[in-house]
Structure formats: structure tokens, C-alpha cells
Give the backbone structure.
Amino acid sequence: MMFKAMAWLFLVQILLQILSVHAKVPAIIVFGDSSVDSGNNNYVRTILKGNFEPYGRDFNGGQPTGRFSNGRLPTDFISEAFGLKPAIPAYLDPSYHIMDFATGVCFASAGTGYDNATSNFLSVIPLWKELEYYKEYQKKLRDYLGNEKANAILGESLHLISLGTNDFLENYYLLPGRRSQFSVEDYQSFLVGIAGNFITELFQLGARKISVGGLPPMGCLPLERTTNIFSRRDCVERYNNVARDFNKKLQEVVVKLNKELSGIRLVLANLYDILLEIIQSPNSFGFEEAAVGCCATGMLEMGYMCNRFNPFTCADADKYVFWDTFHPTEKTNRIVADHVVKHSLAEFL
């Protein structure tokens, strides 16, 4: 009896994968940093982790998965909006297998950036390694479903890219190396060039539907506001200006690649405007606090400084725009994801 039940479940899994080939978007494939890392850093030797309480306290009844939030990430909500799974598994998580990854997989690593120097600083997965994992995943998918079905899924899957903030806040403005080599304008162009090359490599590997995320208003992250003591802890406009300028350059690359790469459908996901609107008018979105995070004092803490022993963590994260000093709450992630789906990803629905 048990054997029959297991055989039936396996058959159902196979049928679902076959049917998914015919879906408009059969899978969500994610690259990036902590804004979208669903737990890969749990399996990397780095201090940058979120696989302990109170992280994940609102995820499936209280499960710290490595997501840097109290709950789900924007990519999880995007997956659900496309009729797929409500949470995208991390590729390095050994509890998942290729049948789980066939409808969605995350290669992202918290702390990484376009620039290898950024990932080196925090000993996390560099972007080039995320691409190597993607190639490995493609082979596993072809072994699992056969070349024809696997290639169809890869060509129709939505590839989401979200990173860049760490390149500026955890590298360029923190460490002397890149500042001694580049003006901020040149560094923006350097990163955008890497982004363009990465997208081109994805295209060459069979990806056709791609969304690249712009930078958020990074000067309004609680950590940056806390350290902006001479301006009454307002947003750091210099950083926001850098983000806007970077996004303009990224949009130019999107336009260029859409012309050059035949068959690609590449869009820029604009996170900046909706997140700034939430931060500037939190009450309009049902929030009470936008200047500090929920976890600990919400002014400086993230990662291991945001832990279950800190007595200052808020009781209701839904009142806060940010979960820790760097990352949004699940409620914010849901609003941002809904906006992105409706305004940037609608053509893929």
C-alpha cells in the first residue's frame, strides 16, 4: 500500500512538471543578494546569515530559513503571483531536489554584488559562481526531464536578478579599494557593464525572459539614516542620487540588449519609486515606522546582531517598513512584489 502511494505521488510530480512546460512562466529562477536569498548562505562559510530567530518568525509559523526578513521575500510573492510555489527554495539546501527546483530555484547569496570585490569582502557566493550553479542546475534539469522539456522550461522561465546595493554600501563607500580606482560615476558604469555581460551570458544559456532589478533608495535604509547624525537622521540623499543615476544607466543597457539580442524579453524592475513612496508616506500603506527596523533597536542591527536574545525587537513587524537595519519586512516585500508584478512583469503574466 505504501509503495502504491509513493508511486502515485511520484507520478503526480512528473505530470505537474510536464504541464508546467505549457505555462506562460513555468519557473522562477533567482540571482542576487540578500534581497532575494532564500537560504543559500546557510551553507556558506560566512558571518552573513539569517537562519536563526527572530528571522523567519512569521514564515510558516516561525521558521528561520536564511531569508533576511521576518517572512517571505519579494521573489516568493512573485512566484505565487505567477501561479507557482509560494516560496522559492535555495539551490544549496540539501533538503530539496531537482523535482522541487523544476518550478523555481534561488541561487542568490546575501552580501554579494556585481563586483567580485564585494562578495570577497564578506566571503559569500560571487555572481560568477551563481552562474556556475545555474549551469549545473540546467544539466540536472535536462537529466530529469529530458532535453526538449528542460529547454522549453528554461526558455519560458522568468529569470529575476536583484543586487547592487552591497557594491556601494558594503564596498565602494566602506572600503578604500574601488574609490581609489573609480569615481562614483565610473563605478556605476563598471557595475552596469558587468550586469550587461551577465544578462548576455544568461541569454546564451537559453534564458529569454529576464528582469533585472534597479537599486532601492539605499540612502533611506535605517542603517544609513542612523549614521547620518548631522542631518537629523534623514535619508542620505547622496546615496539616493547614486541609486537613481545607476538605475538610469541600467535602463539604457536594458534598451540596448533588447535591440541586440534577438528574442530576449528584458525588463527593468523599478523598486526605487514604490519603496521611496512607502518610506515617505508609511501611514498610507498601514505602517507606523519607516526610520528604524523592527529587530532589536532597528538602528544598527542585522545578521547575528539581530537575535532572539535582544529584548528590543518589536512585537508586530507589520507596523514596520523594515525588519532589520537593512532589509524590509514581509509586509513591505509583499507590497513591493505586487507593484513589480503589475508594473514591470505584467507582460509575462
Remarks:
- The beta strands are 28-32, 104-106, 158-162, 209-213, 265-269, 289-293, 320-322.
